[in-house]
Design goal:
heterodimer, A: mainly alpha, Fumarate Reductase Cytochrome B subunit, two-stranded antiparallel sheet, 7 helices, 2 strands, disordered C terminus, B: alpha+beta, nine-stranded mixed beta sheet, 29% helix, 14% strand, globular, metal-binding (chain A)
């Protein structure tokens, strides 16, 4: 086992800010949806909008980061070990079998993770972001009698946005649980907090040193 | 150590920036301040009429006063004669009807039903003298009643059932010398007491507005802007701005809040956006009839009960409001009423005498509009419900003759005979009456415009944007966040969350159980090894 610097500073900042924003957006969003009352409707709407803008800015930065660092390649789905990974989560994990894939700086995500996160980034997030922006700018007629968005019924926009919200909550529940399937139940969370994780020795040695230097 | 200090400093700066962004210093609402400044200056009269020689004499008839007015204001009577206060009707384009003339002569209501055949009494609210029947001369300038609107001495009042003539006790000279800009009482004499008593009809216009507080009406409050009716209802050439949709039907010469307040009066973009679809009144008039009750229901079918052959009335001891009158039927009054809400685009249709009844309850007037209509906004409305006399064979509402000076003149209020009253009334308006009458349920829609509350008391978002008891629960032709949801989606969504939770818990339990079992096997193996 080797202590490896796997999650860089921006990555951790991005992950936790996004997590907090998504939690807050879900809380205020479902209040706007009418599921419960907590902050009060006006406050909920206002906060939801502010948090939405913060998330959009964060997303813009994270897209930039993913492409400039090449980290986007992490999400290229591979199917070679996908079945083994699924087998591990459904059978192997109960038998105490080892992980079928090895986590490394170059390959942080297992095939199932890569596919799920790709789905998150290409389906769930765009669904929420696009319907959210349409919702935000949905004004039949604004102050200057200018029609901005009115052709799409608000009912459909709201339906899709809420659907996205339910999906993301489901994702969050499973996601949080899956973090406990590392070497130890807390090793993954600790890695996302500190950046360091104990990984099995392999050819990643030189990379690790580079990271050390960066620090 | 350095790193910790550095990150704490960074975090603090971050928090400070966030607080700075989140904190909105309240900006002064300059538009509102400007209006307050403008209306704080009260107009003063440029002339003192009591100094005019022409007015320093005894007037034998009110017409002589009018003549004196016209001597100087020698074109004004023409403006009055062109006005709807004088004509009691107005020609306008009405949906489904085309260009039509509508007004008190042919439109009904579900209070005292209609003016036709009852002019002698109803003309107490006509700005003329001598409207005793339907043959009133609408071209005779001598009959224009200038005083009823312009008397500033509160001396003038119309006589009861005197066809629009002033009460005999009125000192005409005093009135003539104290004319000026109409005051609240001039308008209120008719608009507060219409329907036979204070606040009977409107609900938002009544005598408490003569001297009121900001809680009741921010505009007219004595401790507020202290505005009079004509400050808003300005009258260019005697054509007074504003429409009352119990008799009006077209979106012309209307008076809306944004004439002064603009369509973006809030210091909040989200609220300003609501003005496209929600009338100001909807949020800013949470309740009407705040001080005195207003009539919500009037059942003519109950009229005519007599005690020992004599008409009687029942008064509610708590509110002082009459709940039963032999001549009129039974009433239900309400105070501090939450309005009902309807889409309204400024156009209305009316039941016009001779129309076929096409729905029950009969809609005496109907406010037009819908969510899909760009010109419609949601308005607060007083809906007055009741029943009234109807001919089931001709399928028409009946104009009954209610008033007469004496018994034996077919008037219901004297003879208590619907048959005679219906016959006489319908004959007067030139419509057939089969001889059969029934009572049919009716509804009348009165948009609520007055008794604007202080802004602190405006409706909160939750009053409408809530799942249960939304004020707009009745308006179902659009999607409103917070009130509406897709039941199927919510069900599936909850199911998904429960499934995820259950899956996670089961999987976790499975891992724990298998971990314990694996450990046992391991330890057994160790044990066996040890034993060997």
């Amino acid at each position: 086992m080797q202590k490896v610097y796997i999650y860089k500073k921006f990555e951790r900042f991005w992950h936790w800010t996004q997590a907090a924003l998504i939690f807050f957006l879900a809380l205020t969003g479902f209040e706007v949806h009418g599921s419960f009352s907590f902050l009060g409707y006006e406050q909920a709407v206002e906060s939801h909008r502010v948090a939405a803008w913060m998330l959009l800015i964060l997303i813009a930065f994270s897209i930039f980061w993913h492409f400039t660092t090449g980290e986007w390649r992490q999400y290229i789905p591979t199917f070679s070990k996908l079945q083994a990974q699924i087998r591990y989560y459904t059978v192997g994990i109960f038998k105490g079998e080892p992980h079928p894939t090895r986590k490394s700086v170059r390959k942080k995500l297992n095939p199932l993770q890569a596919l799920t996160y790709l789905g998150f980034k290409l389906v769930m997030a765009p669904l929420l972001v696009i319907t959210g922006i349409v919702y935000m700018f949905y004004r039949t007629i604004d102050a200057n009698n200018m029609v901005i968005v009115s052709d799409i019924p608000l009912e459909i926009v709201a339906f899709l946005h809420t659907l996205g919200a339910y999906l993301i909550i489901m994702f969050a529940i499973v996601h949080v649980y899956m973090t406990t399937t590392g070497h130890t139940p807390t090793s993954n969370i600790r890695a996302m907090l500190t950046g360091y994780e104990d990984l099995e020795d392999d050819s990643e040695q030189p990379l690790k040193d580079e990271n050390k230097k960066e620090e | 150590m350095k790193k910790v200090v550095f990150s704490i400093i960074l975090a603090s700066i971050g928090i400070l920036i966030l607080i700075h962004i989140a904190y909105d210093p309240p900006l002064p609402n300059l538009g509102e301040l400007k209006l307050k400044q403008e209306y704080a200056i009260k107009p003063t009269s440029p002339v003192d009429h009591s100094l005019f020689e022409e007015l320093q004499k005894d007037f034998n008839s009110p017409q002589e006063v009018t003549e004196a007015c016209i001597e100087c204001h020698n074109q004004r009577h023409k403006e009055v004669i062109a006005s709807s206060h004088w004509n009691w009707e107005r020609i306008s384009y009405v949906e489904d009807r085309g260009i039509a003339s509508m007004g008190k002569s042919n439109v009904l209501n579900n209070y005292c039903i209609g003016a036709s055949s009852n002019e002698q009494s109803c003309a107490a609210c006509h700005i003329g003298f001598g409207m005793t029947n339907d043959r009133f001369d609408f071209d005779n300038a001598r009959n224009v009643d200038c005083m009823v609107c312009h008397d500033n001495s509160e001396e003038y009042r119309k006589g009861s059932a005197m066809a629009g003539y002033p009460d005999r006790s009125v000192n005409l000279t005093q009135v003539a010398q104290s004319v000026g800009r109409p005051q609240r009482m001039n308008c209120g004499a008719c608009h507060f007491y219409s329907g036979g008593g204070n606040n009977v009809k409107h609900g938002d216009l009544e005598e408490s507005l003569l001297s009121t507080t900001r809680e009741v009406d921010v505009h007219m409050a004595a401790n507020g802007m202290n505005m009079t009716c004509v400050d808003c209802h300005s009258a260019e050439n005697h054509n007074i701005k504003g429409k009352l949709y119990s008799v009006s039907s077209s979106d012309e010469n209307r008076l809306t809040c944004d004439h002064c307040h603009t369509s973006t009066p809030h210091m909040d973009r989200m609220l300003d956006l609501h003005t496209a679809k929600v009338a100001c009144q909807t949020c800013h008039i949470p309740t009407y009839a705040k001080v005195n009750p207003t009539k919500m229901e009037w059942r003519w079918s109950e009229a005519g009960k007599l005690k020992d052959g004599q008409p009687y009335h029942v008064t509610d001891t708590a509110s002082g409001a009459e709940t039963y009158m032999s001549i009129k039927g039974s009433f239900r009054w309400e105070k501090d009423v939450k309005p009902e809400y309807y889409w309204f685009n400024g156009h209305a249709t009316h039941y016009v005498l001779g129309d076929q009844v096409d729905s029950i309850p009969v809609q005496i007037n109907r406010l037009l509009g819908s969510a899909a209509d760009n010109r419609s906004k949601i308005y607060p409305v007083k809906v007055h419900r009741g029943d009234q006399i109807y001919d089931p064979e001709t399928n028409m509402l009946i104009q009954p003759k209610l008033w007469a000076a004496e018994k034996g003149d077919s008037a219901y209020w004297k003879d208590f005979d619907w048959q005679l009253a219906a016959e006489a009334g319908m004959k007067r308006v030139g419509l057939p009456y089969s001889g059969n009458h029934e009572f049919v349920n009716t509804e009348m829609y009165w948009p609520v415009n007055h008794m604007v509350a202080p802004k602190e008391e405006a409706l909160s978002c939750e009053e409408c944007h809530s799942r249960d008891d939304s004020r707009l629960a009745g308006l179902n032709d659009f999607y409103m966040p917070g009130r509406d949801s897709h039941a199927g989606l919510d069900f599936i969504g909850r199911l998904l969350i429960i499934a995820a939770m259950a899956g996670v818990i089961l999987h976790g339990l499975g891992r724990i159980v298998s971990a314990i079992r694996n450990k046992e096997i391991e330890s057994e193996e160790i044990n066996t090894n040890y034993n060997q």
